[in-house]
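Re: the pair you flagged

First of the two:
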Amino acid sequence: MPISYSSSSPVPPDPSSTPSGLDYDPDGGPVLVEPEIRRLDGEVREVAVPPLVPPVSHGSLADVPFENAAVAPDERVISRRTDDGSWQDLTAAQFAREVLELAKGLTAEGLVPGDRIAVMARTSYEWTLLDFAAWAAGLVTVPVYPTSSVFQTRWILQDSGAVALVTETAAQAAALGPELGHLPDLRHLWVIEKGHVDRLAELGGPVPDQEVDVRRGVLGPDTLATLVYTSGTTGRPKGCALTHGNFLAEVDNAIELLYPVFKARTDVEPSTLLFLPLSHVFGRMVAVACVRARVRLGHAPSLKAGDLIADLAAFRPTFLLAIPYMLEKVYNSARATAERGGKAGSFDRAAKVARRWGEATEARKQGTGPGPGAGLKAARALYDPLVYRRIRNALGGRVRYLICGGSPLSRDLAAFYAGAGMEIYEGYGLTESTGAATVTPPLKPRLGTVGWPLPGTRVRIAADGEILLAGGQVLRGYWDPRAGGVVPAAVDGWFPTGDIGRLDDEGYLTITGRKKEILITAGGKNVAPAPLENWLRTHPLISQCLVLGDRRPYVTALITLDLDGIHHWCRMNGRPPVPPDVLARDEELHAVLQRAVDEANRMVSRPESIRRFTVLPVDFTETAGHLTPSMKLRRQAILRDFSREVEAMYGG
């Protein structure tokens, strides 16, 4: 969906007056260009969108901080949290200097171009600094989730051949002590909390600046930038080999497409507080995009509610990255607060008004409706200070946009947030596509879909429904040291995602499930579990849901409880706290969950519906091996650990 922006584009209006998004003067603003659509037997099978910017022909990510310093040396690009809780701004020139000094330090320690350096830390300024400094030194960065087990970490370090590892804490480094004998390539182990990053920068003093210039000069778009290991829902993680060109194709087109987020200069400068893990490609891609676009970037290492709320209030971002689980929690928490105050009815009416507003605005942008009428505008104005503003304040008070990915977001929730004053750009992508492969087009959103292909991307639906991708951001291949390096991943130029989806008549993509997760019942009915699981997960009393029924006579589900929601439910019903194993057998709670299952079943046919479910006394967690670090279900591990409960639902 190419959108071109003229230099005379008007300043977008304050979102408080247009809460569901920005409208531009068609005579001076962006121009919407429909995607190219190809059909087969009457069905849309392929959608393509030309790039908004030409592919880079030289240079790399390593050049970005230095280009910023040359163009806008005094513009603040990063804000760093200090020990006293305040935010210290860094200009483009200051950030480039810190990148240069650390790159020289890595060089002084003997790291040579092409060496792999692993980073195991929560989201922090040091993470982004290490990324750009490593690139400036010609190195390849290897993210490791800070929650990874010792075995997982050892595997990634062995497979990547990392010569250096940077951990956040001394405890992480100590845990690897017994494994060092199995890591002959690992020569350096540095710890952020011990000040090793600052010490590295000091060591680089004798190295001439020109050494880094030379190392940067030999990098190009095809040079390997990073090895990002997949979370491994179905097996051992694989290293996705992403190049500098992959990242630049991704972020350059995303910046241009999401002009309101990254480039529109209004009364408030664009900014974001990054709290999703930089070990995941989603957060990393946005961090790179912010540095590339000189958007003020902050980092929040803690995901604890109290810490994050305080960080958001202090930083006050204009946009955020989010996953559906987070948006569901914010919504459910707001409703629970209203219910405790005896205002549940008012909240529900406000939510209905917000959804109507979001849907009416969508219809106007789609050209199928006039937009919100006078009555709806009045109702929204009434509820804004009572409900919507409080939700915006929980996210810092200035958030106008939410970039959402990771799993499908319900249409109702997307419409609600649009009506509450925060436009959602939902996207779909993989590690293998360097982040987003599709995204909601700002000028023509369609709620409940993941949008059109990112400019420069093609999406095809195979005969079996699998989504295939092609574009400049699609990976070169997978890392395989036994095969001598990178093994190509695409077939005839198309990368098979393993996801199932469909394209509508206007080219919008909807994700319906994972190819390997499609259930085939004993009666031969194909069942996609994801829609049922995603719908039930939005219920305030449900944390996770696993739908099963492969080669079984009917479909069942394992449900875990959301403890915050359960505590609220007990309090509102005058019930004392009880242990989870007792709650799992509670008849009244079972009846509430049965109504939720009945509602979910309305989306599907009778053979696809959930006939029986079991409430588990424990939640699925990453620690127990039931979730990946990106919150995806490890289906086989869950089925193995809860086999007794599964068999009981089938009379075993």
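Second of the two:
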Amino acid sequence: MKKIFFVLLFLHLSCLSEERNVKAEIVKGFLDLSNHSFTDQPFVALTGEWKFFWNTAPLQIQETDTDLFLNLPKHWNGYQMSYGSLGGFGHASFRIKLKLADNLSDTMALTVHEQDTSYAIYVNGKYLGGSGKPGSNANEYTPEVKSSIVVLPQTSNLTIDLYVANYIHRKGGIWNDIIISPYTKAENRLTKRKINETMLSSVLTFVGLFFLVMYFYNRDGKHTMGIFLFSLAVLFRTISTGERILVEFIDVPYWILLRLEYVSWFWSAPLLYHYFYTVFPEDFSKRMGIFFYILSSILTLGLLLPPVYFTETASIYPIAFVANGLLIFVYLSRAYKRNRMESTLLLFGMLLVLVGATNDVLHAESYIHTMYIAPATVVIFVFLQVITFGRIVRQNITKTLEFAQEQKQLSGSFSRFVPTEFLYHLGKTDIRHVDLGDQVQKRMSILFADIRSFTEFSETLTPKENFDFLNSYLQRVGPIIRHNNGFIDKFIGDAVMALFPYDINDSIKAAVEMQEAIRIYNSHRANCGYIPIEVGIGIHTGNLTLGILGEHKRMEGTVISDAVNLASRIEGITKLFSSRIVISADTFIEASDGLGYHYRLLDRVAIKGKTESVFVVEVLDGYEPEKASRLKSTKDEYTLALDAFRRDDFEEAIEGFAKLLDKNPDDSVSRLFLDRSQEANEKSKMELGS
């Protein structure tokens, strides 16, 4: 941003820079420039004693008509005549005789910059150009404000007459330099001035619109609206003063152009004060801002009057204008001493604006003869505001990114307590949006995993060892659940409850992979001399309700459903059958054959809290590969033995399960059914014997 600023500043100053005028002292209406080098010093300001012919047009002048002289540039207001001092209204001619070198090779030109109302240029008695239409009375007079360049005759002796008329402005006469120079130099200088003012206007327009857009994006940033309004006021002043580039594009009547010049001047001061007040409200006086607003409002109402009245404010308002700038500078110094953010750049920028404004006021009142520089200093000032704004935006972005990172970390921390998947299924994107009573019904698979005989196992460990063990175990099974599109709803001591919302197959795959991970974990435990663990996993699929339970000071995400209770009971059945993975018939029916897993029916079992018994199925792939392979190879024999048991043919069942145990002595399910068959068979014999 700084590099861009300095490049633009360099281009801006390069457009401002121009060769200075050399002042030539006219004595008694005569100036000899025959020895002047226009190559070394091309611009000569014709200052000094011009012959003054009051109420006389150039073609009516007789050399003996007057012995009056007026030092130009200067208004004729207050000039002492025999009958009293002159006012602003009237018409007059100014004449000098000019001697140039006989051997000049350049085509010479006369440049007359904008005057208060209208003027005409005569050279050797011939009209060459001007601005507006001067005349002897208001009816013959047309006001206009613009610069003129006229080509001078190729002769060494010139009589130059300036005919000036004013019947509308408070001051009359010549208040800008009249300059003689080579024509090409004059053209280049005028073009350069217009380019400069066009560039100033473009920059002010762009910056103003930029801050206006920023305001609409952030209505709380009142300083952006302040700088927009100030830029707008300076823009209007730039296009309505100097070379008045507005008239290059639009034919604006003089009375509108004059009022636009004054209204932009009246409002630039309070708007600038308002901008700084919005930036540093603790350091600026609100009452002073209101005072300048009231003053500018009164002066703006005065623009409804004829120009002769409201132009009088040009003698009074500069005091308020400069006072406003001094007050801003004082208050900014206070902000600087208090180490307010960006006050250094703003203080420097305000100093430039104050210098530029003072120069322009003195130049406009003819106390000094320089050029308008306030718009240029304002552009530099506005660029400094862009840098300031850029820094503020960068700081805000940095803070926003830091805040976003904190929020992300906080959200990540919360997600470890309340899974993001849980929030997603509630239709929430952020835990802050969760409230009591939020709930949704879904069909999901519920997985319960529990460590066998953990109570007895944990009694052999210290509290720290218990936590270290559980965390080590959960670090292995948790990622498997997430990898299979599930999420852990809660930990219940050593038990894990997980939900699989998308595909029933996900839950079965997760259970098989969990058992595989536990086998690897047990091998590590064996290497360290620790006893192995066994985990039973139960799965059921059904409808459930996810929701937020608790009270306003303590809430918790939970799942309420008969399906959850059933899944928990099925996990308990794994202890009965000494099985690793048991699933409900509902889950088994909907599972895909493409998984490649092997199952065997266990039994219809009574579930606490349910009136009807439930079929449960064992997933054989949950065992060690060798055991799983043996069980798979005897699956058909197991099915026949179970069928005999269910037909109450206990003798056949006993024979079948006994053969299975011969092949697979560690088949806990066949052993359980063998024991049941024997008990049922003995009971049946006793009943027959009695």
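The chain has four domains: 22-188, 218-396, 420-623, 630-689.

-B.
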